[in-house]
Design brief:
The complex is a heterotrimer of chains A (about 270), B (about 290) and C (about 400). With about 270 residues, chain A is α/β, with parallel strands linked by helices. Chain A is built from eleven helices and ten strands. Classes of the chains: A alpha/beta (about 270), B mainly alpha (about 290), C alpha/beta (about 400). Chains in contact: A-B, B-C. At the A-B interface, α2, α3 and α4 of A face α6, α7, α8 and α9 of B.
Chain lengths: ~270, ~290, ~400
């Protein structure tokens, strides 16, 4: 069943077409990989989906059949789409637990007035949320750091927290923007394990962008490849790996083509 | 939190409330009582400012304008419309809250120094409006603002007025803690830390910013009204200038922005400095740096 | 634990302010709250301090020394109120002097009345101050109810009734301008051509001046709030082309020497009323002018002369009062000083007319000086020249 669909999605910054007439469909429960060289428009794609950037004329985004094009971010998020950021953007001067609890924001069962005047039920709800978030922290392995500020965490722990915060939102679709960037291989495996078990637990549909191609190759049945904002290929990992356009696109990338070739063939 | 721990904290609060309610009996003179009332009003102001600035991270200079709004609304309601203190105070708070919601609008698009400038414009134009508007007493000020009355009992000196001010102060502090520890406080802090991330977890930025301004306006309106009815019941636009605004920001900075106890300590400390420096006027120039 | 710690921190702060102030046995304590943010404010304070020092050096008042306690109110009522309370209840002063600004003196009157402390103001002119019915307030300067009548008389007789007001929104100027406007309306049925209020500290009046010009007024009533502003306003009135035939009428602040210095020729023909003129050629006035010039480096305006007169009046009164100066006698000493001030009759110092007080808590009794001087500038610049047009002594109940 289609859960997310874009038609003619475009975004230009001045002269640069960061996303160019992208048609993209995502089915429920799918785990989709989106890859592409640096600057190919992956993050921009996520920013468009979540309403952080406004699309160009003529673009359409449908979530569960509803047109959500250029809705405000918090309204899109309310409809069940969550994301992580490539640069994490944690709430750094807040505790790990508070970061998680902010993630739970939309599901808190009391309103503004109860925030101020509420008594027993509010307190009970707060307690319930705290326990639920603590449990999630156990799951992602950050429970020991619950009362530390996010700034005090290591990079790997921050990646986990950013994932945890997004999962606390209990989204239907979760967009992960390079969730493994900067992690050591051991940590990458750990992260993948956590991602997959979270997915099972909340039956979330996933879209993952990643430079560490291993991540997408191993976890995704379908992979979409972007280059200069255009979809140049879509298919199973094997199909994509052997696609000439894809190989050329990656060859064109000067910086780490050696590495990419190695990874493509691994 | 274990039972005994909770019990202990309640005990602390009980002790604090008892000491505070006996304070007028140990304070030796009326001036010191007056100073304590001013401290309490400043505490309300500081923790109100802390909500919008410390929690939600919105750099506002409008707080002093909202304070003036509260003071003038309360004065006008009780003098021109014959409201009692108990009617004028909520009236003033409502008027201030409306102003606060409007003042918050620039925060939708502006941040940091730009927001400060926009809110400064509100404070200063309000003050200028008051000082050239003869219906608002202009620069002659408004005098004879009546003190609170309960039945036949008039709270017309600092010792008595303290019993009006202190409950409001404690309630203000209490609600400030409640806000901090709720979904609302978390949303505020999240906005302070990262607006983009906040919206990405589903926080409606405009709504929550408005709420932050509105809540701080409640505090400012309350403090303004309490200040207006404080003996001898006189208000004047010169008491709501940029200089005062800076003092309130200092209260926050001294105690550490975002910390409720910090603001309280800051408010006490700055008010004491304010008191001392009027005496050693030469040094005041050095400390606060005004001409 | 944390809570306790923080609370005790606050309590320490509280105890810090509870340092009880001892009565200073045997001294006469006088509290002063004035504006000391400007250079000239400091000099007024310094002059009072020097005068009191001279009294002390020559043996004090019947052997009793005077202690002067200065507090700065910056012309802010919030601070003025706090100062008055601090002086009355913490320093236990016998006499309160203050403030420079009417808007600060006004609430201080209520504080001194409640505290039962004689209170005498050096500079405040707003007629409202003595109308509050306080038993304890005395005014050395001239009330705005006298000033406005001289202005009105002058306007009616020599100027004409089509007036344009450009008035600084400070308390004293505004009160006086409103009183002039209301009296002309009441007695001559004439509305002003325009009445605009401007911010204190405003420097650009050209738009108002242009508007005034288009209305062809007989006179401009200007009060700019600051000396620089007043000088600018005068210059700008000529810049926009308002002819010299339109009279420029200023408030009593025009007596300050900076105005002719800054405004230059634009000050010529400017009319104002004050309580003292540096052009006064009585011997005492000449001596005073020289003394101020030598000691403080400025020509005295009437704020200097009034502060000086105030100290002389206080000295007279203290010498007459029977003071015990013990802890127990505080209230009776305060009453004695009040009664002694109320008994001052026909004090003639620098003031433009004799200063007299009496016992009733009414403006008739408590507005001491009833004789405004009408002054005109005949030459501007550094070596400006003023001409005294005359003085009028009003009946005590005038304008009530
Ligand atoms: N806010 C912006 N303003 C201008 N140009 C932008 C903006 N955001 C992205 N771009 C441009 O759009 C193009 C796509 O950028 P994007 O960040 O989406 O690439 P990416 O695929 O996420 O790259 P990376 O792998 O480095 O994360 C780039 O050329 C980038 O410079
Ligand atoms: Mg990217």
């Amino acid at each position: 069943m289609k859960i997310l669909e874009t038609n003619n999605l475009s975004k230009s910054f001045g002269g640069i077409k960061a996303i160019n007439n992208l048609d993209f469909t995502l089915n429920q429960n799918e785990v989709r990989g989106v890859i592409g060289p640096n600057g190919s428009g992956k993050s921009t794609f996520f920013n468009l989906l979540t309403g952080i950037y406004k699309t160009d004329e003529g673009s359409r985004i449908f979530l569960n059949g509803e047109n959500i094009t250029n809705l405000e971010t918090h309204l899109i998020v309310e409809r069940g789409m969550a994301r992580t950021f490539q640069l994490l953007r944690l709430f750094s001067e807040m505790t790990v637990l508070d970061n998680m609890m902010v993630g739970y924001h939309l599901h808190v069962k009391y309103g503004i007035l109860s925030s101020i005047f509420g008594t027993r039920t509010t307190r009970a709800e707060e307690k319930r949320i705290r326990e639920e978030m603590m449990e999630l922290l156990v799951f992602i392995g950050l429970i020991d750091y619950a009362f530390m500020d996010a700034t005090e965490l290591s990079i790997g722990q921050r990646r986990l927290l950013s994932l945890g915060r997004a999962m606390a939102m209990q989204p239907k679709i979760l967009l992960l923007d390079e969730p493994a960037a900067g992690l050591s291989p051991v940590n990458v495996d750990n992260l993948l394990k956590i991602i997959m078990s979270l997915r099972k637990r909340y039956s979330t549909t996933l879209v993952i962008t990643e430079h560490i191609l291993k991540v997408v190759m191993e976890t995704c049945k379908t992979i979409t490849v972007l280059d200069y904002g255009t979809k140049i290929a879509e298919g199973t990992p094997t199909e994509v790996k052997n696609d000439n356009k894809v190989i050329n696109a990656y060859l064109g990338e000067e910086l780490d083509d050696d590495q990419v070739l190695r990874e493509l063939n691994s | 939190m274990s039972f005994s721990n909770k019990y202990r904290i309640n005990l602390y609060w009980a002790a604090i409330i008892i000491i505070l309610s006996l304070l007028p009996f140990i304070v030796p003179n009326l001036y010191q009582m007056h100073l304590i009332n001013i401290i309490c009003i400043n505490i309300i102001m500081a923790i109100g400012l802390n909500i919008v600035k410390g929690f939600a991270g919105q750099v506002t200079v409008a707080h002093i304008g909202l304070y003036a709004m509260g003071a003038y609304s309360s004065a006008i309601l009780s003098i021109n419309y014959g409201f009692s203190f108990w009617m004028a105070l909520p009236g003033a708070v409502i008027i201030t809250v409306i102003a606060g919601a409007i003042v918050g609008i620039p925060s939708f698009r502006l941040q940091g120094p730009y927001l400060a400038l926009a809110t400064l414009a509100f404070s200063e134009s309000l003050r200028i409006y008051i000082s050239v508007n003869t219906d608002l007493g202009a620069t002659i000020g408004i005098s004879n603002i009546p003190p609170p009355v309960i039945f036949d009992f008039t709270f017309n000196d600092a010792f008595l007025y303290y019993y009006i001010v202190i409950p409001f102060t404690l309630i203000s502090i209490y609600f400030s803690f409640k806000i901090l520890k709720s979904k609302l406080g978390r949303a505020f802090k999240a906005i302070r830390e990262d607006q983009l991330s906040s919206s990405a977890v589903g926080i409606n930025l405009r709504f929550y910013k408005t709420i932050a301004f509105v809540i701080s306006a409640v505090y400012a309106g309350l403090a303004g009204s309490l200040y207006a009815h404080l003996d001898p019941g006189f208000i004047h636009p010169n008491n709501f200038t940029l200089q005062e605004s800076v003092l309130y920001i200092l209260m926050l900075v001294i105690g550490g922005i975002g910390h409720i106890w910090g603001c309280i300590v800051g408010a006490v400390f700055i008010t004491l400095i304010w008191d001392l420096t009027r005496e050693y006027y030469q040094y005041q120039l050095i400390i606060f740096g005004y001409d | 634990m944390k809570l306790i710690f923080k609370f005790s921190l606050i309590m320490t702060c509280f105890t810090f302010i509870f340092t009880s102030y001892a009565f200073s046995e045997g001294k006469i304590k006088i509290g002063v709250s004035i504006r000391m943010i400007s250079d000239i404010g400091f000099k007024h304070g310094k002059m009072m301090e020097d005068e009191i020092q001279m009294i002390n050096d020559s043996g004090g008042i019947n052997g009793k020394m005077i202690e002067l306690i200065f507090l700065n109110d910056e012309c802010k009522s919030e601070k003025g109120i706090a100062n008055a309370q601090k002086l009355i209840y913490q320093h236990n002063v016998h006499l309160l002097i203050g403030s420079s600004c009417s808007s600060v003196t006004l609430p201080m009157v209520d504080v001194s009345a409640k505290g039962g402390v004689p209170h005498i103001t050096p500079h405040s002119t707003s007629s409202k101050i003595t109308k509050r019915g306080s038993d304890w307030i005395f005014r050395v300067p001239i009330s705005s109810r006298f000033y406005k009548s001289v202005d009105v008389a002058h306007i009616v007789k020599n100027v004409g009734l089509d007036l344009a007001y450009i008035i600084s929104a400070d308390s004293a100027s505004l009160t006086q301008a409103e009183e002039i406007r209301d009296e002309i309306k009441r007695d001559h049925g004439k509305q002003p051509l325009m009445f605009v209020t401007v911010q204190q500290g405003e420097m650009d009046f050209r738009s108002h001046m242009l508007k005034a010009k288009s209305m062809n007024p007989d006179a401009l009533l200007i009060s700019a709030g600051t000396v620089a502003g007043a000088a600018k306003a005068l210059i700008q009135s000529y810049e926009v082309g308002i002819p010299a035939s339109v009279k420029r009428i200023l408030g009593s602040g025009a007596s300050k020497q900076e105005i002719p210095t800054l405004a230059g020729d634009a000050v010529k023909g400017v009319y104002f009323t004050a309580a003292f003129s540096a052009a006064d050629d009585r011997p005492i006035a000449k001596l005073f002018t020289r003394m101020i010039k030598d000691k403080y480096g400025v020509l005295p305006d009437h704020d200097f002369s009034q502060a000086w007169d105030l100290i002389q009046i206080v000295e007279h009164a203290l010498r007459k009062a029977d003071l015990k100066l013990t802890d127990e006698s505080l209230a009776s000493d305060r009453t004695a000083i009040r009664d002694a001030i109320a008994n001052i009759q026909n004090y003639q110092g620098l003031a433009s007319g004799p200063i007299s007080f009496c016992a009733d808590p009414t403006p008739e009794c408590r507005d001491g000086n009833k004789t405004p001087v009408m002054i005109e500038y005949t030459k501007g610049g550094k070596d400006f020249v003023t001409k005294v047009l005359g003085t009028i002594t009003f009946k005590p109940n005038h304008g009530l």
